[in-house]
Amino acid sequence: MMTAILFCGLTTVLTSCGSDDDNGKDSGTTLTKVRVVYTVTTDQSVIDAFKVNVYNTFEDGNTNPEAMSNTTWTKTVEIPASKFPVNVEFYTVIKPLVDGATSSNLSYSLKREIELVCIYSDGTTGVATKKAENQGIKTVEDGTSLAEFAKDTNNDQTHWSFTVSKDGTIN
Questions:
Q1: Helices and strands in the chain, H and E counts
Q2: What is the pTM of this model?
Q3: Residue 88 CB: number of other CB atoms within 10 A?
Q4: Strand order in 72-80's β-sheet?
Q5: Tens digit of pLDDT for each residue in 85-97?
């Protein structure tokens, strides 16, 4: 009987846009927005077996799901400083496409990446950024309930939430 293999790597670089002095900005430059780039990549077998919803924060500051229909999903949003403080969220939720479905030689791989970059009134970006990425790889035993697999996978994933404050600090 094949055992499930789980590998999750998580890399997070935590910095902030910081003050003008931290980024070498002159005192006349102000933070105008934060650019957020979200990326999710997976295998076709995952798209064929699951509905993958990507939850991400939009330009209006709200977090909503978007369905992933290809093996690579990328979205770039620019959140204006008028929305700060804003909570930027990023996570995925999977659900089997067919109720009662079971695994048949399913290899599951899902990689998520997020990058936040501050943009200033002179058009330059902050020296500091915030990046995070992780990848989950699993081999699913034949006959495993996809609903149970999805439940376990959703519970085990990283739910990223970063707050961008009015001064550009990202926590």
A1: 2, 9
A2: 0.79
A3: 22
A4: 5-13, 125-140, 106-120, 31-42, 72-80
A5: 988 999 999 999 9
